[in-house]
Amino acid sequence: MRAFDLSPLYRASVGFDQMADLMDRMLANDVGKASYPPYDIEKTADDTYRISIAVAGFSDDDLSVEVRDQSLIVVARKKEDSKDGGRAFLHRGIATRAFERRFHLADHVRVTGADHVDGMLHIDLVREVPEALKPRRIAITNGRTVEAKVLETAG
Fold first, then answer.
1. pLDDT confidence of 105, banded at 50, 70, 90?
2. Is the sign of the CA dihedral 90, 60, 101, 51 positive or negative?
3. Is CB count within 10 Å lower at the N or C end of the chain?
């Protein structure tokens, strides 16, 4: 894979740090590691989302969900004492290898909960835009109305 130098973006732009960081992350991702474990990202309503990750073979104690620096970090590690228990496998098709999956969260997105059901880890997110950032309608006034008010107060 080619290596791209994005440092000119940082020198020649102001306020686009998040965009450059996003491009850095996308270019740095290794294609091989992006396939395990499989996951879905679902939009459940206008401002709510759900990330579902297939975590077959992991218990609740093996999983960790953390939010740090606008990133959602999901880590799974099997406990050493529950390794194989002396079992001999003829075929081992259920991958229970450790993983760390990161999802970058947009501004004003927060995690509201996580559920582990039937081998699936469901993480619920909500986007809460502050009132100051929501679109608002501005009333349009007629210039004559303003002049009439000024004349009334001057008289």
1. very high
2. positive
3. C
Angle at alpha carbon of residue 68, lines to 66 and 73, rounded to 5°? 45
Radius of gyration of the chain (CA): 25
Compute the distance between CA of residue 127 and CA of residue 48 in angstroms, rounded to an integer: 6
Q: What is the pTM of this model?
A: 0.67
Give how many domains the chain has, as a whole number: 2
Name the band, by pLDDT with cuts 50, 70 and 90, for residue 43: very high
CA distance linking residue 73 with residue 100, whole number of Å: 7
pLDDT-derived band at 2 (thresholds 50, 70, 90) equals: low
Same domain, 73 and 119: yes
Residues 102, 113, single domain; the answer is yes
Domain hosting 58: range is: 38-83+91-129
The three-state DSSP-derived secondary structure of 26-58 is HHHCCCHHHHCCCEEEEEEECCEEEEEEECCCC
Residue with the two structure tokens 């996003």: 22
30 and 104 assigned to the same domain: no
More confident residue, 146 or 99: 99
CA dist 40 and 43 (Å) reads: 10
Q: Are residues 72 and 102 in the same domain?
A: yes
